[in-house]
Amino acid sequence: MSTPLLSLRGLLKRFGETVALDRLDLDVPSGEFLALLGGSGSGKSTLLRMVAGFEAPDAGQVLFDGRDLAGVPPHARPLNMMFQSYALFPHLTVSGNVAYGLRREGVPRAERDRRVAGALAMVGLEGFDRRLPHRLSGGQRQRVALARALVKRPRLLLLDEPLGALDAGLRERTGFELRALQRETGAAFIMVTHDQGEALALADRVAVLEQGRLVQLGPPRAVYERPATRFVASFLGGANVLEGQPDGAGGLDCPTLGGTLRPAGPLPPATTACALRPERIALRPGASGTNTAAGIIEEVAFRGDDSLLLVRMPGGAVLRVGHAEEDGAPPPRGSTVQLAWEAAAVVPLLG
Ligand SMILES: Nc1ncnc2c1ncn2[C@@H]1O[C@H](COP(=O)(O)OP(=O)(O)OP(=O)(O)O)[C@@H](O)[C@H]1O
């Protein structure tokens, strides 16, 4: 195997009592778009800051091309970081902001101008070069920050919530543009986000952090369809997580559901929970047996292309059930409904 572009080995970081990163290992190959997902306080920003050199690990290593970056200051690291706040210099024009890093490096004027123009064209800001930041919209400022990060042609770009300040429509468009830029430049991107939809849509691989640990790493579809833990299951797409006991016949008896979940494959004897995605549960009048259950609709929330039903089960669980528009109007609140799902939709969880 070739050396990964970035390798994190046993990274440990404590702030007093808090363990922000708990001996984390992660390899990122050249040209990958990696999304770093996790709840508030899970260690995402600490990880980026450590790779960028703003924070030193208590133990472990950050390797770039196999070389240990310990002691290398941020400006001398072969990577770039785009901050959440954009942090543009207010007194410098757009091109002044983008040129700043190149000027510090002593890149000659003509080459600087050429590269700044190229970076501004890349982010669709031609003609804005003489503007000051306060005369730009939030989205435009963000593009300036992106141009500033890309102009140095880093092989690795770290992005902390790059789309955070944008409204929904602009966010989607800018997300696609970011993905296109990443392909065009061939740089590896590590993007921190709170937004699971964004991570699934843009990334080659998704890394899910929980309390400073990497709990799952894989392509978006794999992580979404086969979540490893309770946390990943509920964090990504709001899966139902059902607790129970193995029934000795390949199923998990779930008292809160008032039924048995049986996955398609074998159930490890230690399994105590399974995930079941809302969109994999169907209303099926007359269904009975394993992988079915009956409950009462408590809430119906229209979401555009589907409705989300909250269905109270006899044992007390409230299941989230997706009801597609093409299946017609959902039954009203208070209706008793029979639910069914395929064995393939039952995902045993490891933790
Ligand atoms: N400078 C610091 N001093 C003390 N504690 C810190 C410091 N920086 C981070 N922490 C703690 O370390 C943990 C991880 O923080 P971090 O900012 O990396 O999380 P995050 O996943 O980026 O969160 P968010 O999504 O809210 O930005 C948190 O418990 C946080 O309170």
From TrEMBL:
What's an example GO BP annotation here?
putrescine transport
* GO terms assigned for molecular function: ATP binding; ATP hydrolysis activity; transmembrane transporter activity
Q: Which PROSITE patterns match?
A: ABC_TRANSPORTER_1, ABC_TRANSPORTER_2
Q: What are the protein's UniProt keywords? A: ATP-binding, Nucleotide-binding, Transport
GO CC annotations, alphabetized: ATP-binding cassette (ABC) transporter complex
Q: Keyword ATP-binding, does the record have it?
A: yes
SUPFAM superfamilies in the cross-refs: MOP-like, P-loop containing nucleoside triphosphate hydrolases
Point out the signal peptide segment: none
Protein name per its UniProtKB record: ABC transporter ATP-binding protein
**SMART domains attached to this UniProt entry:** AAA
Which positions fall inside the ABC transporter domain? Answer: 6-236
